[in-house]
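Help wanted!
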Amino acid sequence: MRSLADITRARRRAGSEGTTPQAPTPAAPGAEGGAIDQPDAQAALSVRNLSTEFRTPTGVVHAVRNVSFDLRPTERLGVVGESGSGKSALALSILGLIDPPGQVAGGEIVLGGRDIARLSDRQMCAVRGKEIALVLQDPMSALDPVKTIGSQIIEAIAVHEPDMRRSAARRRAAELLREVDISQAERRLDDYPHQYSGGMRQRVAIAIAIANNPRVLIADEPTTALDVTTQAQVLTLLDRLVEEYRAAVILITHNLGIVSEFCDSVAVMYAGRFVETSGCDHIFLRPTHPYSEALLKCVPNPERLAEGPLPAITGFPPDLSRLPSGCSFAPRCPIGRERERCHEETPEPHSVDGPAGAAVVECHFAEERVGGALA
Amino acid sequence: MIRVVSKRLLGSIGAVFGASILAFVIMRLLPGNPARLIVGPLAPKSTVEAVKSQLGLNKPVFDQYWIYISHFARGNWGYSYTEGQTVKHLIVEQLPATIELALFSFVLMMLFTVGLALLVTYRHRPIADRAVRAIAYIGFGSPQFFVALVLLIVFSSALNILPGPEGRLSPQTVAPPTVTHLYTIDALLAGQLGTFWDAIKHLILPSIALGLTSFSFLVRLLRANLLEISREPFITVARGKGLSRWTAFRRHALPNSFLPTLTSSGLALGEFLAGSVLVEQVFNWPGVGSLVLDAILKQDFAVVQTFILLAAVMFVVINLVVDILYAVIDPRIRVGGAATA
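Answered by r_m:
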């Protein structure tokens, strides 16, 4: 079996020859000072100013704030950030699965030319699982324990193809199980989730997600609950299938290693906002936002062993119901902590050119940092 | 599956055996001489002895138990000296009324429990949710006889839309030809829709009175379990497939939340069958509850002893059915075996 790194490299090569668009695609800079405005017609998914909030007795929690991005067909976007930064809320918002007391408070989610944020729940049922599919974090609880694996896959097929005969749906389900490398697929359709291992369940979850050949696949920490070897297998599988089915992927994770291997571009999420969106090469070479840099410094690196223990980002993420004025990261930021502007003025997203390509950054001092004026 | 059933079946037989010993011992330990009670205080000693030997009371205790249990199994349940009829005759006459009421109440309770619990959980409905919780709160704290009287006053006396305490049928309605002894089913079998409707109308109020407490408990239980399960990732996955919220709840949340409710509902049905005395009294329901109450007061041991054992058998059968349903609903009980790659 080829390693994941090999596959990714091969794919990247294919991309550089022009078969797949590989350039980082932070949302196209618009006319006014690099702000993002119109949805990109070419994109598989185009999100504009998406905001999601939860009304709780203690105040309104702003889980997603003004997030905009474009996802081109077959592009892979990694969304990284600390726990509670709004990554999962973003995934659920796109799928229209935010339940009261939460709600999508504003913004557009353009998929195939229409704004799905405005669709009714009933209309969204035709979109979910068909055009956008979801893979969840925990394989142990992502499958219904009292239904057979087969019935859960067949359900995903049948809901979008009500006229399909059950025997045909079953054949398709077995085919999907084979696609995700489960042996004796036909027989194992009748097994229950507790008879599958964790890695197998996660592969079943992927099979369910790709069942209807979706344009966009949202994977919310698909490997977090798995051990390292299984993680690699699942990622390799995901890599192969996404390639085969030509789906665009939003991979939500806090594992930057996975992002560097799997994704084309990265969005760094902090306190509900995309503070930096850029190509993978860019962010790992020269992170523009101070938070991205701090995140990268937390990743173990053999070359930095001499520098002593891994640094931690001081302080805690802000309370999303009591956000500070100005830049949300300012209180923890090595640059912004001392500067009045960072505490008073909210940075707008703007495009910055760096040595490895463009990035859309929400930081007042991004240019200075790229230019080397600020460390 | 067969393994599960046979295991439970063995356990059930053990439980009935235990209950029979208990019933037997308690009846023997109670003060008073049944023979003397039967023949009366003025009868000569020889008559008492004759009755005693007729009842087998002078035989060794193991023989007595054997006679008791073998007679019970054969349906030979003794003679009620207070009613002047065989116990079997009395029970066959009165038990169906209790069973019909209990089953009707049970079905009503389950429909409302599942329906209302789903209604207030599958979608965010704060007002409906508060209403259901209020009903459950009040229902849980109201004694059966009180509920029964309030229902009669409101729906029978004041609104006059449902019949008062006149038993299973209106006085002018003739009972349908006997097949199952359950009037609703017999009426349907005979095609007598008028009789069927009359029987249903007479069942509604006593059923509510009988089932309200259990309903209150169950709806709260199921609601809480549904809310808990609704936060499980597999519900999000199911909705992510494109299932509507309702379908995801019905297909995935309900079966996963239902087991505690199933257990409790089994106990509730047992209670409906064995403990409907108060409701039967209020509604003049010709059930087995009033028969047994009478028998206890008059020390009519044959009736009491039979009823204890019958109630035990009913409880055991219900539990057996619950256990089997458990295995039907949850494959982790039915299908053994750990994960295999």
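OP: Thanks! One thing I noticed: Chain A has two domains: 4-25+73-85+120-131+214-371, 137-213.
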